[in-house]
């Protein structure tokens, strides 16, 4: 088969579409014949040599895919050869075939085509596990999504809206209209406006109950300042650095909390529990049309370098898909 190899870490042209050995399904695994994968921010870091795959994961980038079950290993029940699926991966989505632990497979939700389904697993699992399971976002609360135009952000806006929260986003101004269409009530141009002031203004001074943050260090103090009493800040990205000072007094006075999580390195059992929760709680919202894949564009998988340039520019809204066939 072919897969996207990285012979030497570097810029987008470090990605090389090359012939590699076929994967075999191990115990508890299924081999998926890939129809599409999607670019995640983490893939850019992996290409640059800053984010190696966890032990046992395929060497090729790609944290999610959609496709058709091609082979089933020992000890797998509930899946059949020929079934259309999508999957959360620890790597290997940029390939014609990938071996996946069966607990990370999902059916293609009703009303979503097979290619578009590749836009869902990583964002659905990340957003649901952090915003719902960890931060406990409730109906009537305010959710602040930092980087609302990202793949993660566009999903969080829709999920928060579907759950009855008021959703506020930060994004550059060109993305505001699209984010309002997806359900955001307020869009803040973080380049021109102070998001702490704006969040306070639109919440009558209360602040945000939950913040989903992708910036890390550069936003930590301001995120804490933008939290409501009892607020929960969840950091999932470090685009603004990893080390910053935390004012525990400010947190304590608000009875607020800060958490940080990563999905890729979790044990298989935790990933399977998240995937099961997404299937149970999020897939019905997708099937009902309340949450949709947001696809900026589709490119043939061998042109992944072009897709990486686009994502690096931040000019996209939602996901960039890589297709095969
Ligand atoms: N921890 C986990 O398990 C996990 C899982 C998945 C993703 N992530 C993280 O989540 C983040 C989003 O991932 P993705 O693949 O969805 O990213 P993406 O589509 O590449 O989007 C990145 C976004 O960052 C925004 N941005 C840049 N500077 C900003 C700033 N100062 N304030 C607000 N937004 C800013 C850009 O929007 P503008 O054009 O508006 O600037 C862009 O939409 C990444 O940091 C990724 O590493 C973490």
From TrEMBL:
Keywords in alphabetical order: NADP, Oxidoreductase
NADP among keywords: yes
Superkingdom to which the source organism belongs: Bacteria
Presence of the UniProt keyword Oxidoreductase in the record: yes
Coiled coil feature spans: none
PANTHER family associated with the record: OS02G0805600 PROTEIN, QUINONE OXIDOREDUCTASE PIG3-RELATED
Protein name: NAD(P)H-quinone oxidoreductase
């Amino acid at each position: 088969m072919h897969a996207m190899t990285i012979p030497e870490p570097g810029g987008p042209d470090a990605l090389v579409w090359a012939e590699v050995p076929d994967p075999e399904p191990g115990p508890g695994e299924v081999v998926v014949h890939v129809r599409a994968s999607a670019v995640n921010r983490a893939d850019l870091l992996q290409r640059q040599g800053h984010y190696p795959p966890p032990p046992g994961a395929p060497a090729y980038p790609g944290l999610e895919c959609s496709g058709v079950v091609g082979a089933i290993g020992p000890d797998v029940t509930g899946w059949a050869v020929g079934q259309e699926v999508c999957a959360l991966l620890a790597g290997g989505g940029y390939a014609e075939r990938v071996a996946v632990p069966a607990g990370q497979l999902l059916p293609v939700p009703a009303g979503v085509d097979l290619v578009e389904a590749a836009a869902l697993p990583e964002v659905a699992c990340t957003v649901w596990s952090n915003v719902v399971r960890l931060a406990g976002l409730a109906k009537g609360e305010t959710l602040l999504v930092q980087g609302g135009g990202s793949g993660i952000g566009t999903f969080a806006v829709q999920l928060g809206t579907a759950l009855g929260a008021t959703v506020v986003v930060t994004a550059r101004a060109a993305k505001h209209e699209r984010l309002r269409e997806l359900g955001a009530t307020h869009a803040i141009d973080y380049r021109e406006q102070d998001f702490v002031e704006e969040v306070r203004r639109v919440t009558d001074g209360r602040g945000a109950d939950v913040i989903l943050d992708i910036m890390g260090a550069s936003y930590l103090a301001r995120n804490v300042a933008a939290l409501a009493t009892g607020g929960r800040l969840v950091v999932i990205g470090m685009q603004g650095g990893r080390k910053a000072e935390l004012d525990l007094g400010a947190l304590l006075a608000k009875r607020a909390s800060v958490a940080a999580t990563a999905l890729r390195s979790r044990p298989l059992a935790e990933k399977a529990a998240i995937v099961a929760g997404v299937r149970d709680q999020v897939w019905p919202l997708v099937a009902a049309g309340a949450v949709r894949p947001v696809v900026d564009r589709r490119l043939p998988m061998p042109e992944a370098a072009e897709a990486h340039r686009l994502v690096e520019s931040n000019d996209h809204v939602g996901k960039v898909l890589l297709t095969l066939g």
